């Protein structure tokens, strides 16, 4: 029900968008471009693999604001692993984020501790990121700091949503992880490789990626690749998601277009606080799988200043002893404008 309502509202916003918005961006060359994006992920989707209740990665929301200040170019030039060659133009952007993730065990109707399942946990955080790109290489540096435990307000959020939609009452939040401040730093690099063009325009594109996260919340390395097929690709490096806000180094007027995509990735996990529990936990932890994988399929539609996307992500087992594999859906909505 909540997914139907969200998609109806977002679709109406896209259809009602002024067709002149694309020209408006071109008519304001002196203005500073920026993009506001909203990311929403939930395990209650049209492709329902998680029965009829919340389970494991239950919900995630993230709001970002990205723009192109002069200081981002100066900072990007001194950050390591520069992708630019001598004489090559380097585009940059900076962004700010605020979000919340919710994690629960499989059976949220159970009051007692469930020692063989992932613990109740929340993550309320704020962050900032810097992006830089050449024509075919994109880097994303992101730092987040936030609260784990009751102060994350995850219990309040889940109870509110379940009350609104008359869903199963979550009864085990007394077993959630204890309060703790956590931080993460993430670096990812993407490469863009055209596979097929038609009349000078790309219609199939391959975007490999690699990166790592280090901090008190997550520590892992990852590799993956995305293939997209469509018309009038935006000047970015693939669709954004909560873990990876979309590239904003190519902000400007967008052509109306659409594409579908498939992303496959693997992760080598050294630590995951939301599985293992924190050092001050009042709950339990489970042992993470060392190697985990994801497959994401979806589509993106661009119309004037608006971009709307939907995807479904299928996960391998995240921890030892896990039963069924998990899946979650994601909606993204972004608006590009100028100050």
Summarize the structure.
With 339 residues, the protein is mostly beta strands. It has a single domain, classed as Beta Barrel (Lipocalin).
What does this structure look like?
- This protein has helices at 2-15, 21-26, 70-78, 154-164, 273-276, and strands at residues 33-42, 56-67, 91-104, 121-133, 137-148, 180-191, 193-198, 201-215, 218-231, 257-272, 291-303, 306-315, 327-338.
- It is 13% helix and 47% strand.
- It has one domain: Lipocalin (Beta Barrel), CATH 2.40.128.
- With 339 residues, the protein is mainly beta.
- Strands 1-2-3-4-5-6-8-9-10-11-12-13 form a twelve-stranded antiparallel β-barrel.
Question: CATH topology, what is it called?
Answer: Lipocalin
Mean pLDDT: 87
Number of structural units classed as domains: 1
CATH class: Mainly Beta
End-to-end CA span: 36 Å
Number of helices: 5
Give start-end ranges of low-pLDDT stretches. Answer: 1-30
Biggest sheet architecture: 12 strands, antiparallel, barrel
Task: Name the strands of the widest sheet in spatial order.
Answer: 1-2-3-4-5-6-8-9-10-11-12-13
- Rg, Å, rounded: 20 Å
Category by helix and strand content: mainly beta
Helix content: 10-25%
In one word, what is the shape? globular
The H-level CATH homologous superfamily, spelled out, is Outer membrane protein
- Give the topology string: H per helix, E per strand: HHEEHEEEHEEEEEHEEE
Secondary-structure arrangement, i.e. CATH architecture: Beta Barrel
Count of extended strands: 13
Q: Tell me what portion of residues adopts beta-strand conformation.
A: over 45%
Topology (elements, then pairings):
Elements: H1 2-15, H2 21-26, E1 33-42, E2 56-67, H3 70-78, E3 91-104, E4 121-133, E5 137-148, H4 154-164, E6 180-191, E7 193-198, E8 201-215, E9 218-231, E10 257-272, H5 273-276, E11 291-303, E12 306-315, E13 327-338
């Amino acid at each position: 029900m909540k997914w139907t309502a969200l998609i109806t509202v977002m679709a109406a916003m896209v259809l009602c968008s002024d067709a002149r918005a694309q020209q408006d961006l071109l008519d304001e060359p002196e203005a500073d471009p920026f993009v506001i994006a909203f990311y929403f992920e939930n395990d209650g989707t049209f492709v329902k693999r998680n029965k009829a209740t919340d389970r494991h990665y239950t919900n995630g929301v993230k709001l970002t604001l990205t723009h192109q200040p002069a200081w981002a170019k100066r900072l990007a030039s001194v950050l390591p692993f520069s992708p630019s060659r001598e004489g090559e133009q380097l585009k940059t952007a900076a962004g700010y984020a605020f979000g919340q993730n919710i994690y629960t065990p499989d059976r949220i109707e159970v009051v007692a501790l469930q020692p063989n399942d992932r613990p109740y946990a929340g993550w309320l955080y704020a962050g900032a990121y810097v992006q830089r790109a050449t024509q075919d290489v994109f880097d994303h540096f992101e730092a987040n700091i936030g609260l784990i435990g009751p102060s994350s307000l995850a219990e309040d959020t889940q109870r509110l949503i379940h009350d609104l939609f008359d869903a199963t009452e979550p009864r085990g939040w007394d077993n959630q992880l204890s309060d703790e401040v956590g931080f993460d730093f993430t670096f990812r690099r993407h490469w863009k490789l055209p596979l097929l063009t038609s009349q000078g325009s790309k219609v199939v594109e391959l975007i490999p990626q690699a990166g790592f996260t280090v901090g008190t919340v997550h520590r892992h390395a990852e590799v993956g690749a995305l293939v997209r097929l469509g018309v009038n690709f935006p000047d970015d490096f693939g669709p954004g998601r909560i873990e990876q806000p979309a590239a904003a180094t190519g902000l400007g007027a967008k052509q109306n277009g659409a594409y579908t995509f498939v992303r496959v990735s693997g992760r080598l996990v050294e630590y995951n606080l939301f599985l293992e529990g924190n050092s001050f936990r009042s709950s339990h932890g489970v042992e993470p799988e060392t190697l985990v994988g994801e497959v994401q399929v979806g589509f993106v539609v661009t119309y004037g200043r608006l971009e709307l996307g939907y995807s479904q992500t299928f996960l391998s087992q995240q921890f030892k002893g896990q039963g069924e594999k998990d899946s979650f859906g994601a909606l993204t909505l972004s608006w590009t404008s100028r100050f």
